[in-house]
Amino acid sequence: MSGMLASVRNLAEARIAREAGVDIVDLKAPERGSLGALPAEEVGLIVAEMHGTVPVSATIGDLPLDPDPICRAVLAMAAAGVDYVKIGMFRGGDWGSTLATLAHLAGRGTRLIAVLFADDLPDFDWIVRLKRAGFAGAMLDTRDKASGPLTSLLDRPTLEQFVGETREQGLLCGLAGSLRKEDIPELLSLKPDYLGFRGALCHSARRTAGLDPDAVAAVRRLIPPPPPQTFSCPASSPGTLRVNSNPLPTEVSQRGKKANPLPLWETDSQ
Ligand SMILES: O=C[C@H](O)COP(=O)(O)O
After folding, report:
1. What is the residue with the minimal CA distance to atom 2 of ligand 1?
2. Compositional bias of type Polar residues: which residue ranges (predicted)?
3. Full set of structural domains in the chain with CATH
4. Any idea of the CA torsion for 224, 195, 21, 42, to the nearest 10 degrees?
5. Is 181 a catalytic site residue?
6. How much is the pTM?
7. What are φ and ψ of residue 136, in 5° steps?
8. Which residues of 214-250 are buried (b: 16+ CB within 10 A; e: fewer)?
């Protein structure tokens, strides 16, 4: 079961995405780059409203892999309260030292997602190093948004390899990069944990245009949401229905009311 990640750039868009039932709201400023960041203060305000209803991730911006600025940016986003911080693994820079420094943050509970760029032909050997550094997941995306969809940059065996190796390491696995509606069926068959979108959700499919609620709904329809999570209320809780004095636990759907702070699909793949 794969979930739907929607990248949004402000509170109004976050509300549209949540209303459409997306599985993770991803905060990003598309006009500032492939992983453009929103100001941490704004992220905090959005998180405050989304909290407990849908998991939230945020990007830290298109930063070179230099430990100091990366860690500062990650700390700022983590302090803003997001569930996941997404870090672009841009070419050049010092990957080794950056991962070593981030490992300390991961060890203190910050959930990190590495974004590898398909157009840079990433070395999947890094996946195991991400796991060792304590990352929560890895995502494949495109850096140059003019380079076409992920599916035209990498062939199916390569995408399968990414999904397979990421999941083998027990990491959350995401696929994104100018994905179009027609890419969805094939990518779902690879069983990533989530598929990520921005352009396809916007007016005229332009990622810097505003979110189009109809486009969000259309993509959501193509990615079947996970079945509602159900749980039995403890007999003493207010959710317990009593019929003829016999306790009858009420099945309560959490979806759209109070979401698990982790994506619903995370438990499915473990
Ligand atoms: O994380 C997912 C992305 O925001 C994908 O954006 P895109 O569909 O414009 O490439």
Report:
1. 196
2. 230-253
3. 3-228 (3.20.20.380)
4. 180
5. no
6. 0.85
7. -90, -25
8. ebbeebbeebebbeeeeeebeeeeeeeeeeeeeeeee
Q: Which two tokens stand for residue 260?
A: 């698990």
Q: Which amino acid is at 56?
A: V
Over the stretch 198-238, which tens digit does the pLDDT of each residue have? 999 999 999 999 999 999 999 999 998 877 655 444 443 33
Residue 229: the pLDDT is: 58
Structure tokens at 90: 């841009």
For residue 84, what are the β-bridge partners? Answer: 57
User: Is 131 one of the annotated active-site residues of the chain?
Assistant: no
Which pair of tokens denotes residue 74? Answer: 């990650």
CA separation, residue 131 to residues 41, 169, 237 (Å): 30, 6, 40
- HEC string for 112-164: EEEEEEHHHCCCCCHHHHHHHCCCCEEEEECCCCCCCCHHHHCCHHHHHHHHH
CA distance 36 to 42: 14
Residue 174 has pLDDT above 70, yes or no: yes
- Nearest atom, ligand 1, residue 142 CA: 10
